[in-house]
Write a structure and sequence with these properties.
Length: about 350
């Protein structure tokens, strides 16, 4: 089915549009299995979905297996068997039991909840507590609707964060991400974007070998501020050398790269190509759009390189200067001789 847009029959005062599948070749999105579904999209409204076969990725399957085994170990005295991690977690029952054990608390939730309304209420209580307990990093949105609809990203992110509170945390595969397709109505046109949602981050250390997952910037931030300022000035000069070609001046690395736009433009300049505007948000208005931009920029940087950039997009968005410098230094190391 072709990718088409038409006005819906809703009130003319509130324009809406209908999304009827994707033109797979034109959009290069793989084969999203949504051809039988219609999405009504109002202006600035968006929809997201996992790319096909995302759950079949080897690292994702390994992560699910590790989390399933960990749940069995933690709840062995309850004789709970998880056969499908999405089907068995979404309603909040197992999540409540896990949370009560690891947080050493008692939640005011029913053990048996049969109706949709009672299951969602139980899930709401559990998620409210989990957010207060774990203080998840910015960009993670674990809503009742997402979890109850068996959103794989939300469920896996929650379990990964909760597992860190265990006395015997599982050794999970590092740097696991899942590919997402985002469709947003902007100025009466559909903007389709691809990005990766992080599930697990980079390893901080290997407890078995004692080898620390540190790099030059971890060491730099332990040195004098003078050395840090020298690096910041050098990377600022490098960025301005190229961004000045499109009349962009960088004077504050920390605030001028956090939404991803300048990273995307800089990468295009260095690689010698123009990045179409519909691929990213030119003026991102919220955190999710900024995370998309940073993720997209990292994808562009890594397309022709084997080296994985050790950065979590949400950290750049939250203006973590160490993460921002890591990305800039990656570009500098590759293109420092280019005029």
């Amino acid at each position: 089915m072709a990718f088409s847009v038409r006005k819906s029959k809703k009130s003319s005062q509130r324009p809406a549009y209908l999304l009827e599948g994707f033109d797979r070749d034109a959009l290069q999105l793989g084969k999203p299995n949504i051809s039988e579904e219609n999405f009504v999209l109002d202006e600035d409204e968006s929809r997201e979905m996992l790319k096909p076969r995302a759950l079949e990725d080897a690292k994702v399957k390994e992560l699910i297996e590790c989390l399933t085994d960990w749940i069995h170990d933690e709840l062995s005295d309850k004789h709970i068997i998880v056969r499908d991690i999405l089907d068995d977690i979404y309603d909040g029952q197992v999540l409540a039991i896990l949370t009560e054990k690891l947080a050493r608390t008692k939640l005011d939730v029913p053990e048996i909840a049969q109706s949709v309304a009672s299951q969602k209420e139980r899930l709401r209580v559990v998620l409210d507590y989990v957010h207060r307990w774990l203080h998840p990093e910015s960009g993670k949105n674990w809503s009742v609707e997402k979890v109850y609809s068996k959103n794989a990203i939300s469920i896996l992110q929650i379990l990964v964060e909760i597992s860190k509170q265990s006395q015997n945390p599982p050794k999970l595969p590092a740097n696991v991400s899942m590919p997402v397709i985002s469709v947003k109505m902007q100025d009466g046109r559909l903007a389709v974007n691809n990005f990766k949602e992080m599930i697990t981050g980079f390893p901080q250390s290997d407890t078995n070998s004692g080898v620390q997952g540190r790099d030059v910037f971890d060491v730099l931030f332990e040195q004098t501020d003078e050395k840090l300022q020298v690096v910041k000035r050098s990377l600022t000069a490098f960025a301005n050398k190229h961004l000045s070609k499109v009349n962009i001046e960088v004077y504050d690395i920390e605030t001028q790269f956090h939404n991803g736009v300048n990273f995307i433009i800089l990468t295009g300049l260095l690689e010698g190509y123009f990045v179409p505007f519909h691929k990213y948000y030119k003026t991102p208005s919220n955190e999710k759009e900024k995370i998309h931009n940073v993720s997209f920029a990292l994808d562009l940087m890594e397309q022709n390189e084997e080296l994985k950039i050790r950065v979590v997009p949400a950290d750049v968005v939250s203006k973590d200067i160490k993460s921002t410098l890591r990305v800039l230094y990656h570009l500098f190391s590759l293109y420092k001789t280019i005029d």
